[in-house]
Amino acid sequence: MEIEWVRGDVLGHGSFASVNLAKPRKNSDDDDRFPSSMAVKSCDDCCSSTLKNEKEVLDQIGYCQQIVRCFGDSCSVEKGERLYNLFLEYASRGSLADQIKRNSLKESDVKRYTRSVLKGLLHIHAKGFVHCDIKLQNLLLFDDGDVKIADFGLAKKSGNDENQQKQSRFQCRGTPLYMSPESVNENEYESPGDIWALGCAIVEMVTGKPAWNHSQDSNLFALLIRIGVGDELPLIPEQLSQQGKDFLIKCFIKDPKRRWTAEMLLNHPFVVATTIDNQFDQDHEEEEEEEEEETKTITLKDSRSVSPRSPFSFPDWVSIQSSPSSAENSRFEFDDSFLSSRNSSSCLLDRIRNLAGDWRPEWSDKDCWVTVR
């Protein structure tokens, strides 16, 4: 059934679409089917293959609590231009990239967010798909504290189907700073690549900086050489616990066949302890509240000074971030046919030079958007 809706304020601009707040029209039949607020991705209908791919993937993988929901799609004509619109779950607190710009994250939060992303990836991979663009900008934070995976525009089926085998073109997808060695070297985009990207996202959650020390003025070719060639790995943050460091080591195994899977990582102590830690924190907060109430009661009954009843009765102790440039975070997908021999080292260098070339797709915004009230 067609969604009757009105376009609200602009929420942002992605690589392939503009994102607005959307509200269903006041209609008793629609009130139970759609939330009061949604996010709508819109682009020119003739350039909507990425959004339509996202809709198709979300329909096929089905519901998962850790993945943003899709409420349908529609076409509209605004200012004489036909637009394709995709309606998605609205994350009022933005992305984790927005979050680390505002505040640094505690390790307990990093654990919780990581566990949520792993559950989402486990569902995606079990359904036979690869996300291909895991990064903080695509991990959305909701009012209840849940983190959900978003933006499936570059997602693909696992393995090489007949259509992919027939294609002789070279195709690159994802964000360079999050690309895995096999993606750079072999044009391979499978579930282990999502795990590598998750490791990069965790480093950025902890430090507020990209996993690779790559300045805005540095050559992208040099970065891709570091990722794809040699033994260098992303730097593991010193401030992370030993369990967290070991978790990242499992994500950053160069050989994708030996890299841990989402299912294996869900049993790693770094995230398994999350439930126990959360319960401990909750019990600890309840104990502190009880102590405060007891202290207040004693103070009211006796004006004389009262000795602290526990360490928690003392006054509370009051116990940086930079984000990668928009150019470095830009997601890209382009075609070429220069690969003739994947196994030769010179071919590998040619591939990386091509990835780091001066060519960039045109993603400028058009002036014909209209806000429908």
UniProtKB/TrEMBL annotation:
<dbReference type="Pfam" id="PF00069">
    <property type="entry name" value="Pkinase"/>
</dbReference>
<feature type="binding site">
    <location>
        <position position="41"/>
    </location>
    <ligand>
        <name>ATP</name>
    </ligand>
</feature>
<feature type="compositionally biased region" description="Basic and acidic residues">
    <location>
        <begin position="295"/>
        <end position="304"/>
    </location>
</feature>
<comment type="similarity">
    <text>Belongs to the protein kinase superfamily.</text>
</comment>
<dbReference type="GO" id="GO:0007165">
    <property type="term" value="P:signal transduction"/>
</dbReference>
<dbReference type="InterPro" id="IPR008271">
    <property type="entry name" value="Ser/Thr_kinase_AS"/>
</dbReference>
<dbReference type="InterPro" id="IPR052751">
    <property type="entry name" value="Plant_MAPKKK"/>
</dbReference>
<keyword id="KW-0418">Kinase</keyword>
<keyword id="KW-0067">ATP-binding</keyword>
<feature type="region of interest" description="Disordered">
    <location>
        <begin position="281"/>
        <end position="309"/>
    </location>
</feature>
<keyword id="KW-0723">Serine/threonine-protein kinase</keyword>
<keyword id="KW-0808">Transferase</keyword>
<protein>
    <recommendedName>
        <fullName>Protein kinase domain-containing protein</fullName>
    </recommendedName>
</protein>
<dbReference type="GO" id="GO:0004674">
    <property type="term" value="F:protein serine/threonine kinase activity"/>
</dbReference>
<feature type="compositionally biased region" description="Acidic residues">
    <location>
        <begin position="283"/>
        <end position="294"/>
    </location>
</feature>
<keyword id="KW-0547">Nucleotide-binding</keyword>
<feature type="domain" description="Protein kinase">
    <location>
        <begin position="5"/>
        <end position="271"/>
    </location>
</feature>
<dbReference type="InterPro" id="IPR017441">
    <property type="entry name" value="Protein_kinase_ATP_BS"/>
</dbReference>
<dbReference type="InterPro" id="IPR011009">
    <property type="entry name" value="Kinase-like_dom_sf"/>
</dbReference>
<dbReference type="InterPro" id="IPR000719">
    <property type="entry name" value="Prot_kinase_dom"/>
</dbReference>
<dbReference type="GO" id="GO:0005524">
    <property type="term" value="F:ATP binding"/>
</dbReference>
